[in-house]
Amino acid sequence: MTRAAITGVGAVTPLGVGADALYDGWTAGRSGIVDGEGACRDFVVTDHLTKKEARRADRSSQLLLAAGDEALLQAGWGAPRSGELPYAPERIATIIGSGIGGFITLTNNHEALLQGKPVSPLAIPLLMANGPTGQIALRHGLLGPSWGTVSACAAGAHAIGSGLRELRAGTADAVVVGGTEAALVGLARAGFSAMDALSPTGQSRPFHRDRDGFVLAEGAAALVIEDEEKAKARGATILGYLEGVGSSQDAHHLTAPTPDGSGASRAVIQALADAGLSAEDIDYVNAHGTGTPLNDRSETGAMRIALGDHLSSTPISSLKSAIGHTLGAAGAIEAVATTLALRDRVAPPTLNLDVPDPELDLLHVVGEPVALRETPGRAPHALSTSFGFGGHNACIVLGGAA
Amino acid sequence: MNHQLFPAARSTNHRTPGETTTVSTPTREDVETLVLSSLEELGAESDALNPTATFEDLDVDSLDLAELSQIVEEQYGVKLQGEDVAKLRTVEDAVNLITERAAQ
């Protein structure tokens, strides 16, 4: 079967612009959350896009395009339209997830409409949830299979999983996958608050005894993933591997996860089987870990079902403790961070976890990153989970490069 | 925090507060000034902007022209229909059409 090699990663997050800013910040225990929100404060759109490109992109696409440029450049694919694509453009797929799409564009134009002002001709192309996928394909001239994934906070992980399946199906030699979200708008704040999902104290404290909800954040990440043989043939540097994907549906409640985690566990079990691994092969779990009372309890149950006793000796941590919850971007941002953690053979910490919830029987990483267990003869493997309102569960398996 | 990089309603750019949408008939010069400044606002390269430039050269497409039409309507009360706009090739074409319609 085709092995999927990760050759480029890019990210724009509350910890800064670039995958290194994200990963270095997280492993150093820095938080990108300010005043109870995770905004990409370091992102200057004109550093990445012309005035016209910026006008024609919702902030969700702006963040994604910057992350995409970084990922493609790292993969050795050159700058946009530089003519350096290593494969026929028809053989490069683009799949990007977003929870909502162009939330800022949507609310601004709706406000204009209510005030009797003109609605922009750009409103629809900028607010549609597949917009970021179309934008990144247009920017780089990528002509292969292309669509957006929409599964709330699992959208980024679903995009990555869908890309893996395109590669395996032989419909693409390479895929550009990722996720993006820019939803720091009043409607999102009010809506998530009304359902008691947001932390009223503005603290992101996954797995904490006193956790009280998630912290709203924005960001984007992109990954370039290629057929390993082809990547090697062109001399690409391989950062890691995408080894498996699983997904499932709770069919339990509009928003609440299954209390025992059985719904999510099926995605994890499926991902392990897809990667041809057993629970004992997993060296690190990059948790969805939102910091809502319900998620963290359900997720712990899911992991217990899927990994059994092995869970007790497997380090687990949540990036959301450092940047908040980027919704549809989260799975992609976490995949980028996990890829870099596997490269360095470490498990980064969960921040703010001074008092772990005693009911969650997990091996937390607190303070400094911890070295991953070494197994002779193989590189480490990690799981990264993403669960979305609507009952959507996704899990990907990532592997370190040799 | 303001992330409003795309202003939903930019039609007020060319009006002073309190002014109404229907003003006295604009001169051709007024229209040219408005069209050029609007195209620049929409992101056209200012170096290449001149009355004889073609929209193709300026990378101005149908969505840009739809935005321009909104500005013109807001400013002069002139409605440009899809087929009118489709025929426009140069900045001058647009200025002539708008001036003509505004005088009607």
Can you describe what's shown?
The complex is a heterodimer of chains A (402) and B (104). Chain A has helices at 19-27, 51-55, 59-74, 103-114, 123-127, 131-140, 155-169, 186-194, 228-233, 262-275, 293-307, 320-323, 330-344; strands at residues 4-13, 16-17, 92-97, 146-149, 174-181, 219-227, 240-249, 282-286, 315-317, 346-347, 363-364, 370-371, 381-388, 392-400. Chain A is globular, with a radius of gyration of 19 Å. Chain A folds into two domains: 4-240, Thiolase/Chalcone synthase (Peroxisomal Thiolase, Chain A, domain 1), CATH 3.40.47.10; 244-400, Peroxisomal Thiolase, Chain A, domain 1, CATH 3.40.47.10. With 402 residues, chain A is α/β, with parallel strands linked by helices. The model of chain A has no long low-confidence stretch (mean pLDDT 98). In chain B, α1 (28-41) crosses α5 (91-103). Chain B starts with 27 loop residues before the first helix and ends with a helix. The relative contact order of chain B is 0.19. Chain B has one domain: Non-ribosomal Peptide Synthetase Peptidyl Carrier Protein, Chain A, CATH 1.10.1200. Chain B has helices at residues 28-41, 55-58, 62-76, 82-87, 91-103. The radius of gyration of chain B is 13 Å and the shape is globular. With 104 residues, chain B is an all-alpha fold. Chains A and B meet through α2, α4 and α5 of A and α3 of B.
Number of domains of chain A: 2
Mean pLDDT of chain B: 82
Q: How many separate domains of chain B?
A: 1
CATH topology description of chain B: Non-ribosomal Peptide Synthetase Peptidyl Carrier Protein, Chain A
**Helix segment count of chain A?**
13
CATH architecture of chain B: Orthogonal Bundle
Order of helices and strands of chain B: HHHHH
Broad structural category of chain B: mainly alpha
Q: How many separate helices of chain B?
A: 5
Q: Which sheet architecture does the biggest sheet of chain A show?
A: 12 strands, mixed
Oligomer: heterodimer
- Which structural category fits the helices and strands of chain A? alpha/beta
| CATH fold-level assignment of the largest domain in chain A | Peroxisomal Thiolase, Chain A, domain 1
Main sheet: strands, sense, barrel of chain B: none
